[in-house]
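Form 7-S
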Amino acid sequence: MKICSHCGFKLLDNQRYCPKCGLPITTSNNQDKANLSHDENIKNTARIEIPNFDEKEHNKKPVIIVSSIAIGISLLCVILVVLLIYNQNKTKVNTDNIDTINPVDTINNTDGNDTDDDDINSIDNDNTEKIDETIIIENTDETNNQGNTDNTVNNDDTSNENKTIINSEDSSTVDSYIKKYADRDFILPQSKTKKLTYSDLNSLSVEELFIARNEMFARYGYVFDDDSNLAKFFESKEWYSSNSNYSGDLHSEIEEDNCKLIRTVEFTKLSHDSCPDITSDYVFPNSSSSLLSSSDISSKNNWEIIIAINEIYARYGYSFSSTELNNYFENKSWYNNTHSNDITLNDIEDNNLKLLAEERERRTKNALMHDLGK
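Output:
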């Protein structure tokens, strides 16, 4: 159906003029009206459908939101319950571990028991092992850290006990020397007036030689270090009286020679006892024909230095008075004891002896500068 573009009157398809306004009918106007009518139908349709669509969505969203919240709360409750059960079990395990520490602390803090030193050390060692194991197990919370702190304190106490034992042993060592030589005022009573020989010293031990050498100075009131074993040892002797004015010098040539001989024998015995055996025929096979250097002798131990000096004499059949030296060279196939010490050394031997003697003297000072029993 066509519509008049001028008055809007409905027309028949075959009408060319509008019966109402009388104006001619145009095709474009009808097409525009048709298009306009189509657009209005679309708008009307939209106005009807949109409210229905929004209302349905509005009704659905609250249901979805409420369901989501309910599910979230349920999950949260489940998680809280699981965590509560886990914490209760964990607290029970930690309580059991803390109970395990208490016996260790009780052992470490036990007082008033009569126990030997060896027993004390044994207990401390066992406790230390247990404490270490406990520390490895417990490192998770504040309670465990407190347990570790207690164990650390016990370790410090154990260290103090060990120090006390060590001091006690030092004291008993001095007392043992005092008791051992209680019936001997002097090791060598004649060292002040008689010129000593090897035969006077060969039978003495390193310990006896050490005391004999120091008693030569103690006679004049030499003041030993207050905390030294030597000071305590000589203070136990009725004849000893400290003299702060004593310079430390011996009063006669006999005393000086005797002191040097005691030092020589003491160092020889000490080196022989503390160094390994020498298996080669010579320490320095060419010491009679080739000059030695400092680097040649620096690598040798004390006993090798002593033998290196005396093997220069031994080549000439020198007869040794020292028991250790005599026994050593008697076991060498090349040594021939001539029982005569009338020998002459060449210049190379003299130079080598001087170098070796200087090294021996340096080592003697280092080796003999110690305390009684140390």
